[in-house]
Amino acid sequence: MAVYIDPPIWPGHGRMWSHLVSDVSYEELHAFAERIGAPRRGFDRDHYDVPSTSYATAVDLGAVEVTSKELVRLLSAAGLRRPRRGPDGTAVLRDDSLGDPGSAGGALP
Question: In order along the chain (109 residues), what is the average pLDDT of each group of 10 residues?
């Protein structure tokens, strides 16, 4: 049972961002995000986008630092990975990334 965070290497909205995920449940993820002050609007399908200014707080409160690829692997292994959907509702094929903030019409991924 853990919450994981990747490095703040994702640019968007004039900031750098990390992704925060749980390997247990979305409930655990939402509770942890609340503890670090992440707004619910930062949640996207299966992860939170966390600004670099909150990275140290997340780690101090117990988030495990991992690479972006490891984060996606852990999320997928936990069965919590939700694929991005196209306009017709079908899953969009994608690589191992979670996306970058601002890539979905200005919304955080």
Answer: 93 96 94 96 92 98 96 86 64 52 39
